[in-house]
Design goal:
The complex is a heterodimer.
Chain A (H helix, E strand, L loop, with lengths): L22 H22 L3 E3 L4 E2 L11 E2 L4 E2 L2 H13 L3 E3 L9 E4 L4 H15 L5 E3 H6 L13 H13 L3 E5 L5 E6 L1
Antiparallel strand pairs in A: 1-2, 1-6, 3-4, 5-6, 7-9, 8-9
Chain B lengths: L3 E3 L16 E12 L2 E2 L6 E6 L2 E6 L8 E4 L3 E7 L7 E7 L8 H7 L1 E6 L6 E5 L21 H4 L4 E4 L3 H5 L26 H8 L1 H6 L24 E6 L5 H22 L6 E2 L2 E2 L19 H50 L19 H27 L3 E3 H12 L8 H9 L9 E6 L3 E6 L2 H16 L2 E2 H8 L9 H14 L2 E6 L2 E6 L8
Antiparallel strand pairs in B: 1-6, 2-3, 2-4, 2-12, 4-5, 5-6, 7-8, 8-12, 9-10, 9-11, 13-14, 15-17, 16-17, 18-20, 19-20
Helix pairs in contact in B: 8-10
The chains are: A alpha+beta, B alpha+beta.
Amino acid sequence: MSNQSELPPIYSFPPLYTRQPNGLIRRQQINSWIEIILQYCISQKCWRMTAEGMPVGEPDVTKQSIFNNSSIQRVVPQVFVDEIWSQMCEEGKALGVQDGKRDSSQFYILWRNLDSWASLILQWFESSGSLNQVITIYELSQGDGTADWEFHGMPEALVAHCLKPLCQRNRATLIKDERGIAVATKVV
Amino acid sequence: MDCWHFVEVAPSGQPILREGEKDILIEQVVGLYNDKRKILNCQKGRVFLTSQRIIYVDHLKPTKNSVCLELDDIESIEYSSKFLRRSARLILFLKGGSDRNGSFNREVETVTSSWSCPICMVTNEMEGSLTEHTEPLPICINCGVPADYELIKSSINISKDVNECQTGDENSCPACTFINHPQITNCEICGTRLPTGMAQKRRPQSSRAFKDTRVQLELEQTPAKVDPDRTARFVQVSFRKSDGMLFTQATAKSLEDLKKAGMSTLFNKNLVSVDGVPVNYDYSKELPILETKLNKVGIASLESSRENQLLKNDILFNSALTDLNKLMSLVNDIEALYAGHKAKLIGEGKELQKPLLIIDREKFCNRSSFLDEIARDIYGFAISEFKDNEERIGYGMITLVDLYAMYNKSMRIGTGLISPAEMREACERFNELNLQDLKLTRINGRVLCLASDHSLAFLRNKILSVTESNNGCDLLQLTQFLNQGGSNSWTIGILTEVLQDLIEKGDLVTDEQISGVYYHKNIYWPLQN
């Protein structure tokens, strides 16, 4: 990775890149990986990653996988990477891009879980006085009104996912276009 | 009491035999009696019959309470069988019982007195001290007149015999002619029993001069009054479990052999033939070549019988020669094997070990006692294997597989190899046999190791510190680090198992590379326990 200074020292610990034979140790190892990924994504404002560990979206990000540490020449084998993703999805810290499936080729990284994002968005609606108005998803993620908020820049599909808990509580209604993709929402 | 001698016993409970001494038989669970009294601290142990001694090895304190009895000191033996609660006994009558009554002479002999004859002034010498009460008075060697005490009183000069050592100088070995210290009973060089040593031991001054403090025997106190002068000179070996017949017979035989050997040193030693008649020639083994069954009559039958005989002899000789050749090639093989192994051991800078005892299957009546003996032998072997290791770092460890190969290769050639199952069973007996230093340990629940106490923990810590200080190590580096100093004290097999164990315990983590597996200390993912 290019900005290693932002990663914890464990990132240059060679055994991190080998699937540990001891089950208890391996669980902790996977947790370490999840933390590294989350920390990296927060610092880079990276919302999506491919299954190989490449950040998606930002054009200026160097195209190198997080699972490949060139400074100590270690690479995590793909089998173990899949195991990490699967564990991450189970804990709700990652979401498959294709319908939330665990074996998709890209993942949304959730450094907050969906409920916490939902309440953050609700908080924005309440503080900005946008209740009972129809707000587009685009406005939410890219609009000037949300620029200071943490969810600014979130991919639109992910915003729709984050609104789902609000819909379940009957606080929000999603307005979909003809292809069934959510385009706007109204929070009451 | 002075017939008992201290015997050196290895920590494994095996007596250390002299050079040239061979063990013959082992009897389990016996007790010792000095005349009729029990020797309290020698009541449970094993007794070894060797070609020179009867050795008692105590079960509880083998290195302290073990004693031996020289076969040379035994006059005769008697066997008393089991009777009601009395167990079978072997009674050994000792030599020199009759010498005991002359307790007065004992003192005198060592002293010489000189006096000068009042008639011819010649200085005479006599054994013993010359006093007023000496009867009869000495006679002058020159003039033959008996001395009068009053007259010679002034010239008497009693001196202790300081020439004792001079007689001792003749204590040379009959086999190798090495001149030993007068009080030694066996040659220091070759272990042969010294004839003068035996004689001297019965001479009172040696028993007075040297008392071995290492022999600590406690006699049972009998209520009956025991007259010390009239104690019978015998000891008893009591067989608690077996009937001891075999042991008795073997003792009788070895005594006889010893007597014979003693005779042969006196007369005609190594004599082959006397007046053309071979000595020691076994006639019974002569070839049975005479054919008595004659089918035909007359000269023809004699001729054919002769031919037959010649033919048979021919066949016999031929087969004998083939057998001999086979034997020779076998001998060569074994020699080569020994030589190869020896060279290897010397190459490793180790001394070649010699078996202490010859543990032959046939000498044991049951499997259990054989295994007990094997266990002691293995213990002794393993301890000596660990010795250089132990001096340096205090711990030793070896897999049973390695030990098995080593033990069979170096100790069991010629006496019958043991099976792996036997080895394992023998190792399991260590605790029962009071052998505490080594234990059979299982690493990872699968590999059996013979390890000294705490060696596993020691090795673990060592590996951890090495991996920590080196920031990751592979097996090769680890082996090199642990075996610094040249000796291969930690084998790769052991290390692999301990590494595996450490990984399972979560103390080490792995880093797999194409070049191999590197081991790192687990610093980031501690296990809660």
